């Protein structure tokens, strides 16, 4: 067997009306790997993430397996699944504003989250919170003592990422994390996620529309199209030797852009 940390086998999701939203996808994510899941809007990327997190709408029917540490996540109850969130499986969403309650200071919320998952003293949790904030390039004391509305969008998002990473999850799922950020902040966030991955050896599943971003940061790319993973492989292979017509279309949309812009990761420009 491989080094797989998370194995998705033949995952199928059907909506209440009988529409097949995911059609038997397979995916393996290894420890320490940055795996990208790319594909156009509505192809099933976020549903895949939600299945792994156990937060799919109740009315959907799920078949197949999601194996993690010897257990099948598809078979867990909501409550059992919920226990894994945070410490084992972390999530960073595009909509980071929902990560914090508006009228409680960031520091207090960080401490509470850390202490929900680790039995450490308030003082130790405060130290961990300040360290986590500093690592995302924020002014730790200022952010710690601020309410979310006193910070810019990019600062709140970095604070939300600090909170997720302070728990040191084994798998981190990032769903379109840079879409709402400008280029500079998007790059900072990805750099920070990558640094955390290297330090903790966690696996990252990076969901994105942005092929340039996937090229730059991921080790492996899974290409999704209409609920199917049409192709996957090491990033270089997908970049230079892809086979599937949909991947060709995706890659050629990027190739037609000037070279220096390919190296950057602007949001929007490469969106499909
Ligand atoms: N709660 C829901 N009920 C019914 N259908 C849904 C629900 N959530 C998503 N879908 C459908 O499932 C399909 C996949 O949606 P999903 O959110 O996974 O797409 P995505 O690849 O993440 O797209 P985007 O890039 O726009 O975020 C879409 O056709 C969508 O309409
Ligand atoms: Ni999505």
Class derived from helix and strand content:
alpha/beta
Number of strands: 10
The CATH topology name of the domain at 1-88 and 217-272 reads Rossmann fold
Outline the biggest β-sheet: 6 strands, mixed
> In DSSP terms, counting alpha (H) and pi (I) runs of 4 or more, how many helices?
11
CATH class of the domain at 1-88 and 217-272 equals Alpha Beta
Walk across the major sheet and give the strand order.
6-7-8-3-9-10
Ligand inventory: adenosine-5'-triphosphate, nickel (II) ion
Give the proportion of residues in helices.
40-55%
Organism: Guptibacillus hwajinpoensis
GO molecular function: ABC-type nickel transporter activity; ATP binding; ATP hydrolysis activity
Subunit structure: The complex is composed of two ATP-binding proteins (NikD and NikE), two transmembrane proteins (NikB and NikC) and a solute-binding protein (NikA).
Family: Belongs to the ABC transporter superfamily.
Secondary structure layout plus pairing:
Elements (H helix, E strand, L loop, with lengths): L3 E11 L5 E11 L3 E5 L6 H9 L7 E8 L2 E2 L5 H7 L4 E4 L13 H12 L4 H14 L4 H5 L8 H14 L4 E5 L7 H18 L2 E6 L2 H7 L2 E6 L2 E7 H7 L3 H11 L3 H5 L9
Parallel strand pairs: 3-8, 3-9, 6-7, 7-8
Antiparallel strand pairs: 1-2, 1-4, 4-5, 9-10
Helix pairs in contact: 3-4, 4-6, 6-7
Pfam families: ABC_tran (PF00005)
Family: Belongs to the ABC transporter superfamily.
Keywords: ATP-binding, Cell membrane, Ion transport, Membrane, Nickel, Nickel transport, Nucleotide-binding, Translocase, Transport
